[in-house]
């Protein structure tokens, strides 16, 4: 399965909607998108992972890299994920302590840093 990406802006947040699989083959596409957004001045990102079917360690690495990039600009990276199988990966790796994870895009946009 391929990776689909789309972006939109809500207030000062940029929503990155991700669909499909984030794995060793598709993760570079997501990395490129995150780097491009930060380079263009988008420092408050919300990665909507509701449409993600699979996430591997490469995908986790891309998200951590994105977080480091936005933090270098006093920014934030929030995740939207409500699928138990994906949330379990974040719990097992301890990344629930690193990323704010929300149930919906509205909740993530409304959250304060």
From TrEMBL:
InterPro entries, alphabetized: Anti-sigma_ant, STAS_dom, STAS_dom_sf
Origin superkingdom: Bacteria
Gene3D superfamilies in the cross-refs: STAS domain
Similarity annotation: Belongs to the anti-sigma-factor antagonist family.
Protein's name according to its UniProt entry: Anti-sigma factor antagonist
UniProt xrefs under PANTHER family: ANTI-SIGMA FACTOR ANTAGONIST TM_1081-RELATED, ANTI-SIGMA FACTOR ANTAGONIST TM_1081-RELATED-RELATED
Limits of the STAS domain: 3-112
């Amino acid at each position: 399965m391929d990776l689909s990406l789309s972006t939109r802006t809500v207030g000062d947040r940029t929503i990155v909607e991700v669909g499909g699989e984030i794995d060793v083959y598709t993760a570079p596409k997501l990395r490129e998108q995150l780097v491009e957004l930060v380079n263009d001045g988008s420092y408050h990102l919300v990665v909507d992972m509701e449409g993600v079917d699979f996430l591997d360690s490469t995908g986790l690495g891309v998200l951590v890299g994105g977080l480091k990039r936005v933090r270098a600009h006093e920014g934030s990276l929030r995740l939207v994920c409500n699928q138990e199988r994906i949330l379990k990966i974040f719990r097992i790796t301890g990344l629930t302590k690193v990323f704010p994870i929300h149930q919906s895009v509205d909740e993530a946009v409304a959250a304060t840093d």
